[in-house]
Structure formats: structure tokens, C-alpha cells
Amino acid sequence: MNYDVTVIGSGPGGYVAAIRCAQLGFKTAIIEKYNTLGGTCLNVGCIPSKALLDSSEHFYQAAHDFEAHGISVGSLKVDLAKMIDRKNDVVNQNVSGISYLMKKNKIDVHHGHASFVDANTISIAKGDGKTEEVKTDKVIIATGSKPIVPEAFNYDKKRVITSTEALNITKVPKRMVVIGGGVIGLELGSVYARLGTEVEVVEFLDRIIATMDKDCSKELMRSLKKLGMKFHLGHKVNTVTPSAKGVKVEVQKRDSDETFTLAADYCLVAIGRRPYTDGLGLGKAGVQMDEKGRILVDEHLQTNVPGIYAIGDVVRGAMLAHKAEEEGVFVAETMAGQKPHIDYNLIPGVVYTWPEVAGVGKTEDQLKEEGVPFKVGKFPYKALGRARASGDVDGMAKILAHKDTDEILGVHIVGARAADMIAEAVALMEFRASAEDCARMSHAHPTFTEAIKEAALAATDNRPIHL
What is the C-alpha separation between 169 and 165, in angstroms, rounded? Predict the structure, then answer.
């Protein structure tokens, strides 16, 4: 079997790259280790977690908010097994959609573990023990990432779990310890907190979602505490000891000898992910990696071996599905002789808690570190008519603009529909808009996006209308 392009990995980066290659006329194959397409995102990541986040939010609203809307629902109970079944159905529908897209675009799909024989030959070890080889002119490595789990945490997939297992618990636990105050830990922690689990988060740093703007960290933590979530900031976990019925987590205060133990039904380890290149045989192809296990690439996302490219979680940058998608298209178009472009500063980040958190561009701390003069405009959700009407009054919109030119340098939102609203900020910044440009745009009333306009007014010359 001979191909123009072979993509290894069928996650968002891989399958999007394959589709774009096929659209551009390349004879394309995609190799996936597992039986289903879609990678981590569709199978055990973005999609199933959002399904559970939505289900748990519906329950929480019914239990706490419906009465204020004049809706009486009587006694409520959680059928977590049914929530999991619905989540699985959502996953299956999405995975089936990817299979359809492969057929539609005439992309050959091979299932099995791919490894390089040389730079132009890939061996595929199939589940039945057989192997086959494909010859290819070019390769795109899109094998994604796996959770980081230190040995001291005794990861057993039963009581000490990662996001993968957290998506398949069928009985609401009484207590859960989450190690890591980042996106994955807070999203899944909030799912179970809404369902009634006592959730405690241990975070080594002094704040949660530390890569996002500080104001976002403060706003989100305030909201999560309302759910009953507890936080141990500035702490580290020494050991995790599972048993048949639970787990014990030894926690130490940072810069101190002080320790204490947390007991729970489960310990969710969410301290980050590592590039997944296990068994790929990169050495046989001559592909180089850095000290963190990431594949080294140039500005065209090409490795040191001509014709071999890498995208997504296996290369530098944020581990985001949409970043991988952009890189997949970028590589396909580069191979076709086009001149594509990615502005990594304008790839938004989102946390799908409720309220949601979304940000794009520079944070306030980054601008200070870079010595860029800036001004700040903020607007609270509680002053929005739409937020009052729906009861979603937690959160704020924040705009950072250049002090001299008024160009928008960063937008950070905490609140209902922030994940969708951030697209407006990305569009504005792609076209180098000023805060005044945003302030002069007509925003439909009443909407949540009015918070962005009001923040822009506040940044322009401190003249928000509704504050």
C-alpha cells in the first residue's frame, strides 16, 4: 500500500489533517491504535466530559434553581449509570461521524499500533497478531498525549484514577480528592460536586487555572466554593494509598514539613499530560525529541527528517484539541505548497465548568512581565439584564488594551456562555481591533455578549453604560 500522506493518530489533529490532505488531492491513510476513531478528545476527553458536565448541571439547576423559576420538581435523585449511558451514546454518535467523514473523503483507515520501519515505511501491528506495512511519501504524527501519573500515586484505575476512569464511575461517590487545580481536575471535580460528592482539590501553586488570567482564577474559585468544593492551595501530594473500598492521600504544605491525610472513595489525578510516542519507533526514522519527550519541529511543523511532520499534543504549545486541528490544516496546506498561518497567541483557552471560563491573548501578568503599557476594562455579569433573567450572575468580562494604541491585547471571561463568547474576542483580535472598535459595535440586547461591549467601554475611557 502506497500513500502520499499517512497520518498516525485519529484525534482532532489527526482526522482533520487527513481530511484536509484528501481535499487537497493527496492519497491519504490514517492509522489508529484503538478500535474507534477520534482519539482522546472524542472517546475519553472533550466530548464525554462535556456530556457529563451538561447532565450534572441540569441536575444541579433542578435541585437549586428551578424553584426560583416557579418550577416544582418534587424529590430528585441521580441515576449516574444512566448519565454514563447517555455520555456513551454521545461518544458513539461522534465517533460514527468521524468514520463517515473518512469514507466520504476516501481516506483509508488502518487499525493497529503504528511504528516506523524507516522514514517512509510504517509497520502496523494489528489486534489479531498480524502486521502490515504501508509505504508513504509524507507522514503526520498526531498521536496525542496521556495523563501524567507519578509512581508514588499508585495508579490502579480503580480507586486512584485519571480522567479516563472518572468518566465511567456508575455510583456517586461520597468523597473525592482531586490532585491538580487545572482544567481537567476542575471540570470533572465540578461534575461530581454538583451530584453531591464532597470534593477537595490539592494544588501545588497558589491559585487554580494558573495559566489563565488571575481575575479568572479568583472568579472561578468563588463559584466552585459555592458548589461546596474545598481547596488546598500551595500544597503537594506525597503518596496515594488505595484500598478495596477507598483511598488515602498524604498532603504536605508547600515549604513546610506539615502533613495531613485526606480519605476518600476516589483520588482523581489531574496534574497534566505527557506526549504519547510510546512504541512509535521515532529513532528508526531519525526523528528527534526534546528533554520533555516532545517531538522537535520547525516553523512549518516539520521534524528534522524531511517529509515527517508532527502536530498537537506531541509538539510544543498548549494541549488543546482546536490547536491540533489548526496545526493539521496548516501542515496539509504547507505540503500542498500553500502559505498557511497560525497565530498561537490567538488560540483561545476554555474551562467548561459553570460558570465557564475563556481567555485569549495576553494575561495581565504577561503584559507586566513584557513591559507592555496597558489599560483594563471590566464588567460584572451581575449588571447584565440577560444574566439577571437567567440567574447566571456569577462572572465578569475583562479586556486588556494597549495604553497608547487602544489595540485589544487580551480578553478574559468568566460566566455563562463564555466558551462561545470568546470567538468574538478572537475575531476582533485577528483584525487588530481596538477597544473602541468593540465598544462601537452593536451588540444585541439582552445578551451575555453585552458584557464584552461594556468591558470595552470601560477600557476605552472608563465609561460603561450599565455600571
Answer: 7
Cα atoms in the Cβ-side hemisphere of radius 13 Å centred on 30? 33
Given the candidates 3.40.50.150, 3.90.226.10, 3.50.50.60, 1.10.10.10, the CATH classification of the domain at 2-147+274-344 is: 3.50.50.60
Domain range summary for the chain, segments of one domain joined by +: 2-147+274-344, 151-271, 355-461
355-461 topology per CATH? Enolase-like; domain 1 (3.30.390)
- Fold exhibited by the domain 151-271: FAD/NAD(P)-binding domain (3.50.50)
Is 151-271 in the same CATH topology as 2-147+274-344? yes
- Cα-based distances in Å from 124 to 6, 135, 308, 310: 12, 11, 17, 18
- Residue 89 half-sphere exposure toward CB, CA atoms < 13 A: 6
Catalytic positions, please? 445
| Averaged pLDDT, 430-448 | 98
Residue-wise pLDDT for 297-330, tens only, equals: 999 999 999 999 999 999 999 999 999 999 999 9
- The four Cα atoms 94, 95, 96, 97 give a dihedral, to 10 degrees, of 50
Please tell me the pTM assigned to this model. 0.96
Distance CA 433, CA 381 (A): 23
Specify whether the CB–CB gap between 359 and 348 falls below 8 A.
Answer: yes
pLDDT in tens, 185-231: 999 999 999 999 999 999 999 999 999 999 999 999 999 999 999 99
| Residue 461 in this model has a pLDDT that exceeds 90 | no
On the CB side of 120, CA atoms within 13 Å amount to 9
171: alpha, beta or left? (left if phi > 0; alpha if psi -120 to 50)? beta
Q: Quick: pLDDT tens for 345-380.
A: 999 999 999 999 999 999 999 999 999 999 999 999
Q: Read off the C-alpha cell for 191.
A: 461534575
